[in-house]
Amino acid sequence: MTRDELAARTVSRRAVLQGGSLVGVSAFLAACGGGSTATGAPASGGAATPAGTPAATPAGPPTATGPLNFANWDAYIDLTEVGDGEYDLPSPTLDDFAKAHGVEVNYANAKIEDNESFVATIQPQLQAGVSTGWDMVVLTDWMAARIIDSGWAEAIDPTNVPTAMANVRDELKGMPWDPDLKYHFPWQSGATGVGYNVKSTGRDLTSLGDLFDPAFAGKVTMLTETRDTFPLIHRYLQSQGKASDTPAEEMTTADAQVVYDFLKPYVDNGHIKGFTGNEYLQDFGSGDVWVAVVWSGDLASSGGEDDRFVYPSEGSAIWTDNMIIPKGAENKYTAELMIDFVYDVDRAARLANFIYYISPVKGVEEAIKKLDPEAAENPLLFPPADVVAKQIPQPAWDEETEKAINELFASLSGV
Amino acid sequence: MTSPQRARRRPTRRQLAPYLLLAPGCLWLTLFFVLPNIQMFLMSLSEGSVKQGFELTWAWSNYTEAIARFQRQFGNSLLFGGLATLTCFLVGYPLAYGIAFRGGRFKNLLLFLVIAPFFTSFLLRTISWKIILGERGPFLSLIHGLGIVPDNFSILGTPLAVVAGLTYEFLPFMVLPLYVALEKIDRRLVEAAQDLYAGPWRPGGAVLGALSGAALALISMSVLGYLPLDRAADVASGLVTVALIGGALGALVGWFLISQSFIRVIWPLSLPGVFAGSILCFIPAIGDYVNVELLGNPKTQMIGNVIQNRFLSQNDYPTAAALSFMLMAGILVALFFYARFLGTDELTAAARV
Questions:
Q1: I need a surface site. Which of A27, A98, B13, B162 has the fewest CB within 10 A?
Q2: Which of A13, A27, A414 minimises the CB distance to B344?
């Protein structure tokens, strides 16, 4: 019997040891997951001082290096038609860029799901002053401001981006955090409003109030970005006379508390199913989400044919996402070439006409009209005056307010 | 005098060998497990923000505040992780038993099938659960078609979806150790038991099955939140119905499947596998956050989600570190007691009797 006994003993010991090492492995993997962007792009030996090199070697023009590591949001680039109404990567714009400059683009689609959690993955590297592995990232105004304020963005050499300098729309210049576009160029602007699947809801929606229609209980989601969801619901409560009339950009912790108190019961009774990033694109299709707070162009470019976006009658939120070259980027010059490339009017027209967002490029209206006369009427590309009049900007919170409001939002989403 | 020297040196080398063999593992663990943990521990006692930097102030309040604030998520973790482990066991034991005792020449193929899901990314597998359990998925279409649930009944975003996802994900971790334990059992012991009148055990099996079936039904229904606990009148009838159904099913299984030789020989000898399997399931299950992220809702958030949110969204590293540490400590304490009561030494002793 001793042999069996021994066998049983070894088995369990080994199994337990395995358990121990598995825990170790998972801890290790988790640690890697957080910092995977650091290892994502191979760090070449001479990458330590990529920023200073163009200046340090004045002789000879800079050459494009690559591949360009480009992190972007989902549904934010033009795609190639692969079948009947089906589109997929590669993107014609990026392909053209590769052809024009002889550099591949390593495009990470949907790498960014929300500003905070993406930046959290590159922040340790930025703080440590090492390359993040990305040459270009697309971040919303407030996050772009934070990155630039912290000195974590490479300065863009204006001589490398003449097209962009000439073509950027005037109203996008003069942001207090980077008035002369030294560190960023807008990628696209868009709105936050209400999206729905008309087959699921059975009717057309017009207002933010529709989010709380009991008929849609359990089929509603909102965005994980505090700055998207809170100001918009605040706007709704204002229209109902249930909240103070603080303008959105000055929204306070007290205002956020009002929004929290209003939303909390809807989360508790399951009316609001959750808070997501671009995942609603899949959930609309599967019928698991009927109505959601969404970003304007996504559903038109990547949703199903029954998915609709509406600028709510109470108002919508307007924002701009910006191209930023993170400090220590290995292919800074290539990133600048990319910025200049997408500011070409015709290319900008093609891009905007595909992703249904508002292009930052002057004169793009004419180019889009030439490309697709119907698109000139599209409210996603060209919001009508009455919509623009009711649009609210994203709030500018100081660190303390932001922390308090983020805490409220976290506890709303159950964490 | 060379021979005594050689005699002295040889054992030294032999003594050294195990340490040399251990060295890479130890080094790896020190670098990637011990050091990060020390750093995490120090972080958990710090205060500050990302912008200003964190300073070690021995702020033990990080722990007390975190535990006070995130009780519910700790509870969810324990309940969902525990239930998933239990379900893994219920599904995995018969499976492992079948493969070990009745697998025949298909044994290797069957084992391969058990681990086959690992060949795809676990993220993809969890996302496919979203489709399977989704509104237009096969499962809901079927039960909606049968008309046994109300129209707005859905599974995604409920504890059931989370537990189902966890169970699926960690099932192979349960099956493999169980299989190893069952496979090692000497068949002659079973024959000997049968020779010694260990035959069918119908009444005993039925009672045992009924009791565990009823208990299991009650536990799972209450963890999954399907008991109508908000109306007092329904509670009693609900409990009784659930317990009766569970009990009846359990009794049936027990009546037909539990024999005396199983309860006296196979079960005790397979306990080391049960022990290892449940640990391998339970530990990753309570720390998991992907399943909740994809299949849960705000009310089903587990502690892993809180840690993720604290680290990545709130930039609140100290609280996140404190939570991680408590989770780890909790697991260690639980393991200690588990090993104490189901300890491997006693198990092998039991097998000898």
A1: B13
A2: A13
Residue B140 to residue B78: CA distance in whole angstroms: 27
Nearest to A273 among B50, B137, B297 (CB): B297
Range(s) for CATH 1.10.3720.10 in chain B? Answer: 71-197+267-353
For helices B71-102 and B267-287, the axis angle rounded to 10 degrees is 140
* Residues A274, B157: C-beta atoms closer than 8 Å: yes
Which residue, chain included where needed, has tokens 């609603």? A280
C-beta of residue A145 within 8 angstroms of C-beta of residue A324: no
Q: Residue B189: closest CA among chain A residues belongs to which residue?
A: A1
CB-CB: which of A11, A217, A282 is closest to B181?
Answer: A11
Cα(A70)–Cα(A41) distance, rounded to whole angstroms?
Answer: 11
One-character DSSP codes across A103-145 = --EEEEEEEESSHHHHHHHHHHHHHHTS--S-SEEEEEHHHHH
The interface predicted TM-score (ipTM) is 0.79
Q: How many residues does chain B have?
A: 353
Quote the distance between the C-alpha of residue B69 and its chain's center: 25
Per-residue pLDDT of B11-70, as tens digits, reads 677 888 888 999 999 999 999 999 999 999 999 999 988 777 888 889 899 999 999 999
| Chain A residue closest in CA terms to B279 | A19
A301: tokens are 């470019």
**Contacts with A26 from chain B: Cβ below 8 Å:** 284, 287
Min distance B273 CA to chain A CA atoms (Å): 7
Indicate the residue type of A87: Y
Residue-averaged pLDDT of chain A = 84
Cα-trace Rg, chain A: 24
Domains of chain A, each with CATH number or no CATH: 66-189+320-381 (3.40.190.10), 190-318+393-412 (3.40.190.10)
CATH fold of the domain at B71-197+267-353: MetI-like fold (1.10.3720)
CB contacts of A8 in chain B (<8 Å) are 181, 184, 269, 272, 347-348, 351
- Helix B202-224 and helix B159-184, axial crossing angle in degrees, nearest 10: 150
Q: Which of A322, A382, A386, A354 is nearest to A146 (CA)?
A: A322
pTM (whole model) above 0.90 = no
Phi, psi of B154 (to 5 degrees): -140, 160
| Nearest in space to A157 (alpha carbons), one of A341, A333, A322, A329 | A333
Could you tell me how far CA B266 lies from the centroid of its own chain? 22
Q: Which site among B182, B305, B309 would you substitute to test the A interface, given the most A Cβ atoms closer than 10 Å to its Cβ?
A: B309
The backbone torsions φ and ψ at residue A72, rounded to the nearest 5 degrees and listed phi first, read -140, 175
